[in-house]
Amino acid sequence: MAYASALIVALVIFAVIALAVVDRAQWNALDRQLESTARALRVVGDVRGGHLTVDAGDREQFAIIAGAKGNAAVIASDGSVAIGSDDRMAQALVALTERAGAPSYSTVQAGAMRVRVFVEPIVVNGERVGATLSWGDVGAIGALDRSVAAGFAVAIPLFVALAVLAGSEIARRGLAPVDRIATLASEIEARDLSRRLALPARNDELGKLGGTFDRMLDRLQSAFERERRFTSDASHELRAPLSVIRAEADLALRGERTPEEYRRALETIAAESDALEALTRDLLTAARDHSNAEDVRGPVDLALVASAVIQRTSVLAGNRRVRVNSLSGEPAIVQGNRALIERAVLGVLHNALKYSPESGTVEVHLLVEPQFAQLTVSDDGPGFSQTALLRAFDRFWRDDAARGRDGTGLGLALAKTIVERYGGAVALANAEPHGAIVRMTFPAT
Question: 363 and 325 in contact (C-beta within 8 Å)?
Fold first, then answer.
């Protein structure tokens, strides 16, 4: 309705202006014709003794100038019609020549006709001896104006109706993708994010909107799948230690046991509780990984981080009699959150200590380049299997060879996520003849 109203207003304004222009053009054309005829008639007739006379030659000349359909006359100074195409009309207009001291236009009612008149005085030697006049019926102008107005009155509603119908159809087709987006958005549920708009490629606003909507659904589907997989894996990992704790408690309570049996049951429960605590801690860390609440960034020295992590794991290294060689004395400043980066390095170094053989060696090496800083942790353990090289970053995934060891399968996954948050990357490799290598690369500041 707004579009139709605006169109009607615009067309009405155009019609009014067009009518005014047509009407003015007709009046101007009529005035020019009348003036041209009246001034041409000044050569008709002769002045003798101060009086205007007309002979047969003048009448022929008058007929040529006025034409077959011309309305003109030559009026003598005494008010008589010397010559005219319509003496009766000319006589009715004589009064206009008596008042005209200069060329002039007038619009008067002459009987049943409304006419436009141009009067041109005839002056000889400073004396007014008569006048010429020509006139035209202005009714034709009004008739044309009414015809044009009637044409607009018919054309405007028809044009508006066609424009509204065509515009509605164009808008309906053009906005069909928006309707599809609204329909799809109302039907999508969290358990099924696989549907897409799949609009044909089009380089306009709706095409960009459809593509953006599909990419948003891709991200949502990926996020929901990750969360669903994470929840499933977390529940599976939590079930095992809880089952062991419950089984040991039930077994100890089933009957009287010796102090040694109670002690063994409590030790098992304590070990499983430790594993459960470690798993819960890693789960909380993974959950916080999606939040920026603690992600306050600033300059971080990787060398100091590596030294702090080595100090924190010194007890574990001593218990396994693993020697840690550090080659990280040179400062390496990167941008990030020190607590998170330290957590990533701790996870990698903890894995290296866990899988190194007793009396083995773990090396921590820091490489500083103008464009990046790289922290490498290597051990002389069995290294990564081919499957582990592909899946070690999956949360809760553990290689068959590692299943008998303590662990949650979250260390490397969290390290990768943290490093990538700050624009870096984590890469896995195997050393020769054996051993694992983990490289964490950060962009330099």
Answer: yes
Please answer whether residues 89 and 66 qualify as being in contact, where contact means their C-beta atoms are separated by less than 8 angstroms. no
Calpha distance 132→307 (Å, rounded)? 119
Write out residues in the chain with pLDDT < 50, as ranges: 291-293, 402-405
Q: What is the C-alpha to C-alpha distance for residues 378 and 130, in angstroms, rounded to an integer?
A: 125
Instruction: For the sheet with 81-84, list strands across it.
Output: 81-84, 72-76, 127-137, 113-124, 104-110
Query: For the chain, what is the mean pLDDT?
Result: 83
pLDDT digit string (tens) for 131-177? 999 999 888 888 899 999 999 999 999 998 998 888 888 888 878 87
Which pLDDT tens digit goes with each residue over 88-139? 888 888 888 877 778 889 898 887 788 999 999 888 877 888 899 999 988 8
317/142 Cα distance (integer angstroms): 110
What backbone torsions phi and psi does residue 359 show, to the nearest 5 degrees? 65, 20
